[in-house]
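hey m, so remember when u said the tokens were messed up on ur end? i reran from scratch. heres the input so u can diff it against urs
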Amino acid sequence: MTLTSRLKDYAMLMRLHRPIGILLLLWPTLWALWIAGQGQPDLHVLVVFVLGVVLMRSAGCVINDYADRNFDPHVARTRDRPVAAGRVSPREALALFAALCLIAFALVLTLNRLTILLSFAGAFLAATYPFLKRYTHLPQFYLGVAFGWGIPMAFAAQTGGVPPLAWVLFSANIFWAVAYDTAYAMVDREDDIKVGVKSTAILFGRYDRAMIFLFHALTIALLALTGALARLGLGYYAGLAVALVMAVYQQRLMRQRDRDGCFRAFLNNNWLGAAVFAGLLWHYYGV
């Protein structure tokens, strides 16, 4: 195997060819940085967090494929992943995961003590999430915690503390992750049932779309509460209105519960997150 093909497999293992996961992790981190910095986040902190998002999402994908190496060959959408297909060994995957985490930790070491301490919890969440789907139908909630841990870290890095406002925003992200990852799990539901993988898509059954909309509604409500606590203006709430429209549109995409429609609904959450951030930019800069 050539070096080029090896690097390509590593990039695929890190899902660098599918940036949607980076974006879904990045948006709530940016929300937190802009609110904590009142529209003027520290440039060094911003760079560290953006790089950290890319590194930790990549690490999460690597450890996920390691954990699912015996399941992925039996699922149509995942059977060609590098570990499942045998192009990358489990040992290589673990080494790559460790390397990515170490680089991310080196970046965190340039920040304050509280942020460094919080990063240990973040690393634990990233490493353990993939294993929960064997034991509970609620791994999407854990994903929300893992994907949202950048929020308290961002407040800690920017302000030196984690105020109640941060935890409200953190809770909003948990509900948002449950909504979009349930749509994602609907894509694989039939295969997951066969191999014994658990998810909220299986748990919710025929109420899946209704529960997704409920969690989207809770997300918007908590984001509105965040706006009230942070004294954000109409521009921000206009962004939330657009986000709500996106949530309704996703219901339309999922109406037949076909794989393509559910996956498109999942992808559309990128624009929901972007709409919220655009509302923040409107509030702080009038753009």
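this time it looks ok to me. The CA atoms of residues 3 and 9 lie 10 Å apart. if urs says something different then somethings off w ur setup not the seq
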